[in-house]
Design goal:
This protein is of the alpha+beta class and about 200 residues long. The chain has two domains: about 70 residues, Orthogonal Bundle (Arc Repressor Mutant, subunit A), CATH 1.10.10; about 130 residues, Muramoyl-pentapeptide Carboxypeptidase, domain 2 (2-Layer Sandwich), CATH 3.30.1380. About 45% of the residues lie in helices and about 20% in strands. It contains eight helices and seven strands. A four-stranded antiparallel sheet has the order 4-5-7-6, with helices on one face. About 15% of the residues are buried. The mean pLDDT is about 85.
Length: about 200
Amino acid sequence: MRPTTRFQILEYLRKNRTASGHELSRALSMTGANIRHHLAVLESNGLIESISHRQEGRGRPVKIYGLSRRVVGDGLEDLARAMLDVFVKSPTGEAPEAGLRSIAVHMASETSPVPERLLTRRLNQTVDWLNELHYQARWEAGVDGPHIILGQCPYSAIITDYPELCRMDEFLLEQRTGLPAEQTAKLQPSAKGYPFCTFKFSGKK
């Protein structure tokens, strides 16, 4: 069976590392429009990414594509583990609050918005910020105060070995909302089977 066009594109990039749409069109004997369609699909699926631009002829610079970091792989997980071992873990195996809070303050302060007086606006800003960090967050009102629900754990690859990161999430939420946060559910299965975490807030500020 003849390999699909997208498989051929991925194999070409695996062997040659980079290519423009024109190069792929010529190498695979396909029209530019057809190649651009397949490149768009591969890019939307996170399999390739535009890594630079290059001048080809007199027109505008064209995109140069390569395999995405997700496909190629990286050492970020190993680096994260090493840094957490040094910075977060104490010799007794307990996570020092100061280290976790320092990480949270640093992360939260990088894009701190103008403080909002209304709690609902602060919660909306916090949810938007969390979603930029891939938490798939939302917030709901409750009789005991507002709750933020996290539909995804960005640290799922290492959370089993570093449950202290849940405490860091509490500090993150406190830093962004100005309210004490407490985790009330951890990787709880939803009705559809997807795990989620819930944090509730207490007090008014």
